[in-house]
Amino acid sequence: MKDFVYESPTKIIFGRETELQVGREVAERGAKKVLLHYGGGSIKKTGLYDRVAKSLEEAGVSFVELGGVVPNPRLSLVYKGIELCRNESVDLVLAVGGGSAIDSAKAIAVGAPYEGDVWDFFDKGVMPEAGLPVGCILTISATGSETSTSSVITKEEGWLKHALRCERNRPAFAILNPELTTTLPAYQTAAGGTDIMAHLMERYFTNEPNVDLTDRLIEGTLQTVIKYLPIALKDPKNYDARAELMWASTIAHNGILDTGRIGDWASHRIEHEIGAIYDVAHGAGLAVVFPAWMKAVYSHDVARFVRFFHRVWGLEPDFWNPEKTVLDGIAVMENYFSSIGMPVTLEELGVPDDRLEEMAEKSNWNGPVGQFVPITTEKALEILKLCR
């Protein structure tokens, strides 16, 4: 196990009707004017927008708003948010939505006080030295951005999808009401659950020995998602299932499961290039890429894969042919994804195979990706071909 320092300053307010507390949370941080940042019109149709606005007004907090966040959030909207924050003297950015809204809010928050181009943080390795505080009200269990250090933004010019990871990205507070996820379409719920699973698996496949505690925490969280995701799909109003998924989303990506180990993240980097070009749901893309990555790299540590499919998916190990256990396990996982309405091939995802070389090259824009097995451009292309 590696040495580590762990700190997670995000205050979590979890439970029914917790969005009504947002005004108090903002006011307690001394904010007088916030940027209310969200996606489409769903928060207005469900009444969430009105509840948030009322809570802010009752707390004496004014706000300006910026909607229009889309999946794979765009740099152009981040620029608009930065300009709005500067012109309106905003002192806190409040995201209402899922990972796209929160990631975009994080980028706006670090870009507002920065004199250069905010894309420097995502493309040139520059680290922000200042930033506005961010708060969020989560409406989909998926990315874990509500407590993570990550923000992923797509630049339309060249369709580049890059990430910024830094402690300054962690929100000051996160309001998690599972009830807010009950109106989601089934596809979004399933894609969100797959995203959670991918975050856990990225951490699980590590070369670090003696990490049994976090191994078992990851395995248990994965089993929770595997169990409760079909329940939420069958009974969308099931609060307990929604609550399990929402808390799993947060635990999967708040850093606690990184402690003492180094995860992989090659599958995410490869999927980012699919999402940047074809604008697919991130979790759906990961349902295609992750099994293909497994097929390409499992020989690096067959024992870890056998243990994964035994402990998480319940397969009995074939001690005389461990590779068969792994391949059978991948098939079981793919069948699970199919059963919840997720694609398992590029064709099912609606992605043609005429730009695989471009996506492979872009995945390696800053060198080989992945820590478990370094993935070169050539290896990334192999993985993308396995996705067909």
UniProtKB/TrEMBL annotation:
Q: Which InterPro entries match?
A: ADH_Fe/GldA (IPR001670), ADH_Fe_C (IPR056798), ADH_Fe_CS (IPR018211), BDH-like (IPR044731)
| The protein's name | Iron-containing alcohol dehydrogenase
User: Entry's SUPFAM superfamilies?
Assistant: Dehydroquinate synthase-like
Q: Which UniProt keywords apply?
A: Oxidoreductase
Q: Where is the Fe-containing alcohol dehydrogenase-like C-terminal domain?
A: 189-385
**Which Pfam family would be a valid example here?**
Fe-ADH
Work out whether the entry's keyword set contains Nucleotidyltransferase.
Answer: no
Does Ribosomal protein count among this protein's keywords? no
Q: Where's the Alcohol dehydrogenase iron-type/glycerol dehydrogenase GldA domain?
A: 9-178
Record-linked PROSITE patterns: ADH_IRON_2
Source superkingdom = Bacteria
What is the protein's species of origin?
Answer: Dethiosulfovibrio marinus
